[in-house]
Write a structure and sequence with these properties.
Layout lengths: L1 H14 L9 H11 L18 H31 L5 H34 L7 H10 L7 H15 L13 H12 L1 H4 L20 H6 L7 H7 L4 H6 L11 H14 L4 H21 L12 H4 L5 H8 L10
């Protein structure tokens, strides 16, 4: 790493105040602190003293998201193979899924980082490391068939309207990834809905339905049972827990989300209290709906709370969206 540090130190004067490239200092600083430990440290005061700065801190969150991403890649290929009526081998499924998922991740990071760097240069401040997580969260809450131009528009809206208009990281009260997703949901509902999740458009078998479990539960009318409706569409609780169902890229597998939760809790980055609080809130609210909502309404309002854990993105949201990040300081 010495040659990398020497290279950065050689070019650093050009990016400092008064240098010919001073306006690009946020760009230089972003890569410096990503590859090397920052030199700006606290010398006194009540601070936690360790080697974990903010960018590496966010890196652990990304590590916790990797199981969801890898499973999402496999599931994208697996669901497409069901639609096409073929039975490819494991690596073919991975390749097929990667061709659908990785471009979405690349566009999310590419366009999002463009806006991050632009605002950092205009405002003359450091690049906010929070986008390292936002750039991964956003693709994982999208369907695999989302057009790439909509990914670009969505992340642009999320970064600018969800964060930068309020002053950037630490000043925004909206989650940029969820803001971007909400924008796409209302602006392009046909492309964001679960019914078009499957990417394959040819050789579709007659017996296959691309509806998500959440869409099935929403279509149920009492007194029909939500559980019976899900099972009739092939959604068993085991399959929903494992994640081999249509849905957003990273939200279908509860077991992968739990692996991520374990990583966040063990490293102290995620709060188990927040996660448990989400589960308690779900149990209480579902009990209220089950008791008060009259017969004839949407059956999803009468779904048992243990079933809601496996529907939509509840588990993903409770672990990664509601996650409380403790305050830490670079030392």
């Amino acid at each position: 790493m010495k040659f990398i540090r020497d290279a950065f130190h050689k070019w650093e004067p050009h990016f400092e105040h008064g240098g010919k490239l001073s306006k690009w200092h946020p760009f230089f600083d972003a890569f410096y602190t990503l590859l090397l430990s920052p030199r700006a440290v606290t010398q006194k005061g009540p601070h936690v003293r360790d080697a974990l700065d903010s960018k590496r801190y966010m890196g652990i969150v990304i590590l916790a998201l990797i199981p969801c991403l890898l499973f999402g890649i496999y599931n994208a290929g697996y669901q497409a193979s069901l639609v096409e009526g073929v039975s490819p081998d494991f690596w073919s499924l991975i390749l097929s899924g990667a061709m659908k998922v990785l471009p979405i991740v690349a566009v999310s990071y590419g366009v999002g980082l463009f806006w991050e760097f632009l605002f950092a240069i205009i405002r003359r401040h450091e690049v906010n490391e929070g986008f390292l997580v936002t750039g991964m969260l956003f693709p994982l809450i999208l369907p695999a068939t989302i057009p790439l131009w909509q990914v670009a528009v969505g992340i642009t809206f999320g970064v600018i309207i969800g964060k930068e208009v309020f002053g950037g990281t630490g000043r925004n009260f909206l989650n940029p990834a969820l803001t971007a997703r909400a924008f796409l949901f209302f602006a392009y509902p046909a492309q964001i809905s679960g019914d078009v999740w499957i990417a394959a458009k040819e050789r579709v078998v007659d017996v296959y339905s691309g509806a998500t479990a959440l869409a099935v539960s929403a279509s149920v009318k009492l007194p029909e049972s939500v559980t019976d409706a899900l099972i009739s569409h092939g959604f068993t609780w085991k399959k929903l827990f494992m994640g081999f169902v249509p849905g957003s890229i990273g939200e279908t597998s509860v077991i992968c989300v739990l692996i991520g939760a374990f990583i966040l809790i063990v490293t102290g980055i995620g709060s188990w209290r927040t996660m448990v609080g989400c589960v308690v809130g779900l149990v209480v609210s579902s009990a209220i709906f089950n008791a008060l909502v009259p017969v004839g309404t949407v059956g999803a309002l009468h779904c048992p709370h243990n079933g809601i854990w496996f529907l939509g993105g509840f588990a993903f949201g409770a672990v990664f969206m509601a996650r409380r990040t403790p305050c830490r300081h670079r030392v």
